[in-house]
Amino acid sequence: MISLPNLKLLDVADRLECRLEGDGEIEIRRLAGIETAQAGDLTFLANPRYAAALKATHAAAVILADDAEAAPCAMLRTDEPYLAFARAVDLFTEVVEVPIGIHRLSSVASDARMGEDVSVGPFVSVGPGVLVGPRTVIHANVSIGSGAQIGADCVIHAQVAVREHVMIGDRVVLQNAAVIGSDGFGFARRSDGTHHKIPQRGALVIEDDVEIGAHVSVDRPAIGETRIKAGAKVDNLVQIGHGVKVGRNALLAAQVGIAGSTVIEDDVVLAGQVGVNGHVTVGKGTRATGQTGITSSLPAASFVSGLPAMDNRVWRKAATSFALLPALRKKVLALERRFAELEQQGELTQDEGKGEGPKKP
Q1: What is the DSSP string of 149-187?
Q2: What are the counts of helices (DSSP H) followed by strands (DSSP E) for the chain?
Q3: Angle at CA of residue 86, ends 81 and 92, nearest 5°
Q4: Which residue in 74, 75, 234, 346 has the fewest CB atoms around it within 10 Å?
Q5: Strands 74-78 and 101-102
């Protein structure tokens, strides 16, 4: 439950660009879930599974779709209820102000260029030649390597490491402990079986409006570049290998792993724990369900599951059949034993045993 200053429902509807049905003079003090909402609370319905719960809600008002059934309270109608809910969270959340300026316990190189109204928390290290755009917020214990460029209105949370010469666009969010520009995993095998590290000196570019989750690693390549295009969103604990290209507005859920030199095209959605082989292309608009293993390139608009990845409809049939395999195995073994018994009794001719049917007299 989220606390906020009281607002009249009429004002909330105006700010969220929703159509009001009901008393606009109601004062809204909190945003809450359908089942826990009380008088003075605003709730929302975006998932039809909760329609029954809405009928019993005690909320003062609800955000819901234009075509949804009427609720027992005031309603804010919209064709995008989940988006309206997201905006309501912003509306009702107290913003923690970060002081503008560089904290006295931080170390900023003398030739680093910091834009207007930048905020730098304590114990931050900013290397030589760094460029930080206006209004960017850098929280405590962040390390920014030499020559890195960070755009305007970015938020870099505590413990993030931005390595040398990484380029980051505007309005990028880096969650706690992300590592941006770590060395790609590349080694050349020597004749004696040991491994020689391949220097990873390529570029890493993160375009505008990207968000990268906590404990994500984005690797730089030996040559060329790793690039995450505008609007992509990366969840926690994701590994993006060296030389990978992630397309515009792609969504990568938790624990996704993408091997080197792979191309993830625009609007791709990879659910949790999806693994993608190196040197393949995942076509535009493809969706992969959780724990899918993508071992080869996929055409645009694929919908895949399983390992190796296959059409989701085929996979669902295969998954259903998998549960039947133990019983089917027992039946096959029983038939094999019966077949062997009939052969021993001489009741099957040799040709019948081969499946050619009985001999004609």
Answers
A1: EE-TT-EE-TT-EE-TT-EE-TT-EE-TT-EEEEEP--E
A2: 6, 39
A3: 115
A4: 346
A5: unpaired
pLDDT at 13 over 90: yes
Q: How far apart are CA 36 and CA 57, in angstroms?
A: 8
CB 217 within 8 A of CB 236: no
- CATH fold, domain 101-314, is UDP N-Acetylglucosamine Acyltransferase; domain 1 (2.160.10)
Report the distance separating Cα 257 and Cα 353, nearest Å: 51
Which of 19, 20, 21, 50 minimizes the C-alpha distance to 33? 50
Backbone phi, psi, residue 175, to 5°:
-80, 170
Which residues are part of the catalytic machinery?
Answer: 242
Length of the chain in terms of residues written: 361
CATH superfamily for domain 2-92: MurE/MurF, N-terminal domain (3.40.1390.10)
Would you say residue 165 has pLDDT above 50?
yes
For the whole model, what pTM was predicted? Answer: 0.85
Lowest mean pLDDT among 137-146, 269-278, 311-320: 311-320
Is the sign of the CA dihedral 253, 298, 291, 287 positive or negative?
positive
